[in-house]
Amino acid sequence: MIPPSIRIRDESLPETPGVYLMKDEAGQVLYVGKATSLKRRVQQHFLRPHNRLIEEMTQKVREIDYIVKGSALEA
Prior knowledge:
It contains 2 helices and 4 strands. The protein is an alpha+beta fold. A hairpin with a 5-residue loop joins β2 and β3. The protein is globular.
């Protein structure tokens, strides 16, 4: 689950394809990713980090922004 302290644009992530941007406290982009389901993919970063670097990065995230696209290919 995404920690409640993290600000998410429009307060929730859609289950649509798109690009997501994870930002730190200063608004600097830490990570950019693409997904077929923004909600599911971003949650995976917090539930099951793939490695120690991802786990450390998610601890610095304070804001998540996203851009909805028509398909994963377009993202």
